[in-house]
Amino acid sequence: MTEALQIGNRKIAASELISLLASYQMLPQLQRELIVDEAIEQTSRSANVAIDLTPEEVAQAKQQFYAEKQLKNEEDIQAWMVRQGLSYEQLEAVTTRKLKIEKFKQATWGNKLEAYFFQSKAKLDKVIYSLLRTQDVGIAQELYFRIQAKENSFADLAREYSLGPEAQTGGLVGPVELNALHPVMVQMLSSSQPGQILPPTRIAEWFVILRLEKFIPAQLDESMKARLLNELFEAWLQEQQKQMMSARLEQVATETQEDVEKPLT
Which segments cross the bilayer (predicted)? Predict the structure, then answer.
């Protein structure tokens, strides 16, 4: 038995590690990190792409990492390294990994951001709207006509009759991205003009009255670029994990079939 490490009084063999990682539900995270590291290494070897760090970037990454971990001096750093079981060589890899991942994202999907943004824009646009909902169709119809006739304001009726948290704000909701709303609401708001009151419509158990207050188009600013880069990265990573899982299941199935077909001796 080859001993891999000792924690307290327990000696853990190398052959036990995979089983322990699986038992503590840590195997998917390890798999994720290994996929990322391998991809970064492959990208770094590419003739057209380089994600190596300058000494200045390494120093800045370290300082940012230490600030995040609240490591204020060399003593704090050494104590943290002992707790994590890290060497100085491993420490540099840990402190610069976040920056390398960001460079990898940019190198892989940076030139696809604009196309992805316009593909996703309809879901990223935001709206501010007024909402009044009730479970009684008769009340919904009456309130709609009262708003239309300007007998009462939308805000006053929402405060008195709406059965959701929007009652606390006079029916006002947002800004909120369209992708966070019910598909029926998205269709209604996307096809209306600001100030237009939409008649009661059945959505699930509710009868809702809507009024679009403001439409806010999404912008491809730095914050949006970072968000979309992360979305593309996560989608890629999930697909890589899915493929690895499928390959593993096929391997297990093959091994099981081979065991079944073994002749009895």
Answer: none
Give the CA distances from residue 91 to residues 5, 36, 56, in Å, rounded to whole numbers and listed in that order: 19, 18, 17
Alpha carbons 142 and 135: distance in angstroms, whole number: 13
The tokens of 187 are what?
Answer: 């269709």
Please give the structure tokens belonging to residue 7: 């924690």
What's the rounded Cα separation, in Å, for the pair 155 and 171? 6
CB-CB contact of 153 with 238 (8 Å): no
Cβ atoms of residues 144 and 209 within 8 Å? yes
DSSP sequence for 17-31: HHHHHHHTT-HHHHH
Mean pLDDT over residues 71-77, rounded?
A: 94
Q: Helix crossing, 222-261 with 113-124: angle to 10°? A: 100
Token pair 């994720």 is found at: 32
> Would you say residue 178 has pLDDT above 80?
yes
Q: Which helix (H) or strand (E) holds 32?
A: helix 27-45
| DSSP-derived secondary structure for 74-90 | HHHHHHHHHHHT--HHH
Q: What is the pTM of this model?
A: 0.77
CA 141, CA 196: separation in Å to the nearest integer?
Answer: 16
